[in-house]
Write a structure and sequence with these properties.
Blueprint (H helix, E strand, L loop, with lengths): L2 E4 L3 E7 L2 H6 L7 E3 L2 H8 L4 E7 L1 H11 L4 E4 L6 H12 L3 E2 L11 E7 L5 E6 L13 H6 L2 E5 L7 H12 L3 E4 L3 H6 L1 H10 L3 E5 H8 L4 H11 L2 E5 L5 E5 L2 E5 L13 H14 L4 H15 L8
Parallel strand pairs: 1-5, 1-9, 2-7, 3-8, 5-6, 9-10, 10-11, 11-12
Antiparallel strand pairs: 2-4, 7-8, 12-13, 13-14
Helix pairs in contact: 3-11, 9-10, 11-12
């Protein structure tokens, strides 16, 4: 297996909303907020569902890698309920090896309400459900050892059980990549994330805001200096300014594609990571990896949802 993703197994529920809806419900545009099941159902009761898919940040990346013809797998915790069974079926249809043995859990399968405003920005309200209860017993060492790269998501990190799952995966991995996921995650877990980035990860994906927040930088030049100093492969997306890859002293940049008909920014970072990892496992150089990531992210933002 080329890449094995470990992340939140979340059923994405996509809905179009107005800016007023976000303001009325005290939601900050472009961020992810954790909510309980009651709040989730309350928000959903007033909305029209556009689409439901087997989502979660890393799962989106893994499906993208599969669609490019790569041998991939995914571990994410669901309950043996209606949504959990649909989640597994959705990944299997995409030729992803689903390596979690589901059973009836005390908490239902996780769901994420993705609210898309007219400017194509997405705001997420996530009920983690049982996804956030993943632990080291859910991780099979042999599955980890069979993969060339393990890909983790910052959304999953938390003290206690998920942290133990992370540590077991990293300990047994040949090479580990991670997405910082969201400034919310970075702010909440800054010291832990810094330790992971400096000492335990090989490949780091982030956007400019997440990296700036991680090291509390005042300029992007500080980010570049930090990346060179720790000698890791750090890939940063910068919106309209494109993307940059810093690998020791090598710096590569790729411009963003122009004149796109943007419909939804959901999954842009996830599919960028898929394209870049596709390049790594197929022996492309850093510039080619950036181009493949940019190609995939450009495709996904011109449609609703996080599936090409």
């Amino acid at each position: 297996m080329k890449v094995l993703g470990i992340g939140n197994a979340i059923v994405d529920v996509l809905c179009k909303v107005s800016d007023e809806f976000l303001i009325k419900n005290s939601l900050t545009k472009g961020t992810m907020k954790l909510i309980d099941n009651n709040d989730f159902q309350k928000l959903l009761s007033t909305l029209k569902i556009e689409e439901t898919i087997s989502g979660g940040s890393i799962a989106n990346s893994i499906v993208g890698l599969s669609q490019l013809g790569n041998d991939v797998g995914f571990i994410g915790k669901v309950s043996d309920d209606h949504l959990g069974r649909n989640y597994e079926d959705g990944l299997i249809k995409e030729n992803v090896k689903y390596l979690f043995k589901k059973k009836q859990e005390p908490i239902p399968t996780g769901t994420c309400l993705i609210l898309i405003t007219p400017d194509s920005e997405r705001t997420m309200c996530t009920f983690l459900g049982t996804a956030g209860k993943i632990n080291d017993s859910d991780i099979n060492e042999n599955d980890i050892k069979k993969a060339k790269i393990i890909f983790l998501e910052g959304y999953l990190w938390d003290k206690g059980e998920p942290k133990k799952a992370f540590e077991k995966a990293i300990k047994n991995a040949e090479k580990t990549a991670m997405s910082l996921s969201d400034t919310f995650c970075v702010d909440r877990h800054r010291s832990h994330f810094l330790d992971l980035v400096k000492n335990k990860l090989d490949i780091i994906f982030a956007n400019e805001q997440e990296m700036m927040s991680l090291i509390e930088a005042k300029s992007f030049e500080e980010v570049i200096s930090f990346a060179k100093e720790i000698k890791k492969k750090i890939i940063i997306t910068r919106g309209e300014q494109g993307a940059i890859s810093i690998d020791k002293e090598e710096i590569c940049e790729c411009k963003a594609k122009e004149n796109l008909e943007i419909k939804d920014l959901t999954g842009a970072g996830d599919l960028f990571a898929a394209g870049y990892l596709h390049g790594i496992i197929n022996d492309l150089n850093s510039e080619e990896c950036l181009k493949k990531g940019t190609e995939l992210s450009s495709k996904i933002i011109q449609k609703i949802g996080a599936r090409i």
